[in-house]
Design brief:
The complex is a heterodimer of chains A (125) and B (226). Chain A has 125 residues and is mainly α. Helices cover 61% and strands 6% of the residues of chain A. Chain B has a single domain, classed as Rossmann fold, CATH 3.40.50.300. Chain B is 31% helix and 27% strand. Chain B contains 7 helices and 9 strands. The chains are: A mainly alpha (125), B alpha/beta (226).
């Protein structure tokens, strides 16, 4: 998976934790997969190792990863990928709805736009 | 506590360089010392290293005055301190013979990691010189590294390599205080940022907390130092 952090876009530990959840929801990362070590990831992202450790702690608290002694950090087998997907699509929907409202439009127009865009994409493919 | 400064004052003739600076560093912390040119960053680092004595206030390096704890802090000056005709390898051989904390194996590894050619300093680019000097500095085993503008005026690739090496060499038992006036690329590696303006600490903050409040270090830099 590809990792991206932007120091201008909120706490970096949250961005790292979110990136793992997004990768799981998209299927780029699967239950049982091993995450890179905190140090290796810190090096790749040019961030403080403490920041990555904190991100991994958050993921562990959320029940998404587990640390196996001497082996590293793994995505738990029992992780509910469908719940992560629902969570992400709801977040995206909330952003979309905020834009629709800002334009002074409603749910009907929002749905219509989704349909239109989907048809256009279908025609192009 | 690795380093502690309490109400440190330093003047050059009549000009005050540090006005009541207090600062503490714990093991494992990477702290950015941020400020414009002339803010007092180099003076602060030299006082911490024991290279300058404060006029007032207290400095403790591992609980002792820096001059009594000589060799505990590594100071990397902004300008290349080595003769132009010397190669980093020659300097390393010299340091290995005179300084017990210098680890030649670590130095060789760092030269490879930082991709530094072992040629005379005078025949290197500015970025290569900066990388060679960082390798020489980090090859010393010490609880405190004081790095003065290691990223200033060098090419993008060198800056990126240096940041990567700093993360690679990060240790739980050592603290790093790194001064810079170019905040952008470096801000990810800091735990904390100390903003210095005209010899005074105007803000000392955990960087992730700044971000949680919706501000990056770069934005904060512009805000508090403008």
């Amino acid at each position: 998976m590809r990792w991206n952090v932007d120091p201008e876009a909120g706490p970096i530990f949250e961005q790292i934790a979110n990136a793992v959840m997004a990768a799981l929801a998209r299927g780029e990362l699967e239950p049982g997969d091993k995450l890179p070590s905190a140090r290796a990831l810190a090096e790749e992202l040019r961030v403080n190792p403490n920041t990555v450790i904190r991100a991994f702690e958050v993921l562990e608290q959320l029940g998404i990863t587990e640390t196996r002694r001497g082996l590293g950090t793994f995505v738990r087998e029992e992780v509910d990928v469908d719940a992560l997907k629902r969570d992400r699509i709801r977040r995206a929907a909330r952003r979309y709805l905020a834009e629709v409202r800002a334009l002074g439009l409603g749910l009907e127009e929002a749905k219509a736009a989704l349909e239109e865009v989907k048809e256009e994409d279908g025609a192009r493919a | 506590m690795v380093l502690e400064l309490k109400e440190v004052e330093k003047r050059y003739l009549r000009t005050p360089a540090l006005k009541g600076v207090s600062l503490a560093l714990e093991p494992g912390q990477v702290v950015g010392l941020l400020g414009l040119n002339g803010a007092g960053k180099t003076t602060l680092l030299k006082v911490a290293a024991g290279l300058l004595l404060p006029d007032r206030g207290e400095v403790q390096l591992l609980g002792r005055p820096p001059r009594a704890a000589r060799g505990e802090a590594v100071f990397l000056p902004e300008q290349n301190p080595w003769p132009e005709r010397r190669r980093p390898g020659e300097v390393a051989a010299l340091l290995a013979g005179t300084d017990a904390s210098f680890d030649p194996e670590r130095f060789r590894r760092l030269m490879g990691f930082l991709e530094v050619p072992d040629r005379p300093f005078g025949q290197m680019s500015k970025g290569q010189r900066a990388r060679a000097n960082l390798a020489l500095a980090l090859a010393r085993r010490a609880p405190l590294y004081l790095l003065d503008e290691p990223l200033a005026g060098i090419d993008l690739i060198s800056r990126d390599r240096i940041l990567k090496a700093l993360v690679h060499e990060w240790r739980e038992d050592a603290a790093v205080l790194l001064s810079t006036h170019e905040v952008g690329e470096a801000e990810g590696i800091f735990d904390r940022a100390v903003f210095l303006r005209e010899g005074e600490v105007v803000l000392d903050a955990e960087v992730e907390e700044l971000r949680a409040k919706g501000k990056s270090v770069v934005e904060t830099f512009k805000e508090v130092l403008a």
